[in-house]
Give the backbone structure.
Amino acid sequence: AQTVTQSQPEMSVQEAETVTLSCTYDTSESDYYLFWYKQPPSRQMILVIRQEAYKQQNATENRFSVNFQKAAKSFSLKISDSQLGDAAMYFCAYRRAQGGSEKLVFGKGMKLTVNP
Amino acid sequence: DTGVSQNPRHKITKRGQNVTFRCDPISEHNRLYWYRQTLGQGPEFLTYFQNEAQLEKSRLLSDRFSAERPKGSFSTLEIQRTEQGDSAMYLCASQGDNQPQHFGDGTRLSIL
């Protein structure tokens, strides 16, 4: 079974600074997707960024970028120029690329605090 | 695109009662998922529909839980004879082909 581990339960960052959130996963599959989702307090889960495992190039979405290390099964999220609105729970998630449902397997999440 | 809608937002009930939640997915999405999220944890998969067919159920989904998607549009999740351990946030997500999952706001269930 696939597992996703987020070892840091909480982090804080100063506004305008950069922060990196770590995630590791375990799978025997060669083709899969990895995601970072953001869940603000009492609000819905929002997709931040997606990475296809077959792509060597790291995904980037504006201030958000990932460092995908397939051999190490590591998938970290870097947030640049942190803003107050980035404060939220962040979840790393895995999904098989083929076969069966495309259910997401989530880590336990990490609470990010942004200090003004 | 009005997003995924879940009702009710909150449900408080006494232990032993039955509850039903509704999820209205994004209209063109053929896949629909239910997840359960307890405090301090990430969401855990419960069940999956492709159109009206329920194709996968988690072992977390005991006999007291049932889900339907009768016309391949909205879905309901029913919990019979609720227990304290059922207290959680129940999340619904929908997905189109080659698209990521979009989540609703969830239904928070509290068992007294």
Remarks:
- Chain A is about 0% helix and 50% strand.
- The CA atoms of residues 38 and 75 of chain A lie 15 Å apart.
- Chain A touches chain B at residues 4, 35, 37, 43-47, 50, 91, 93, 100-109 (CB under 8 Å).
- The mean pLDDT of chain A is 94.
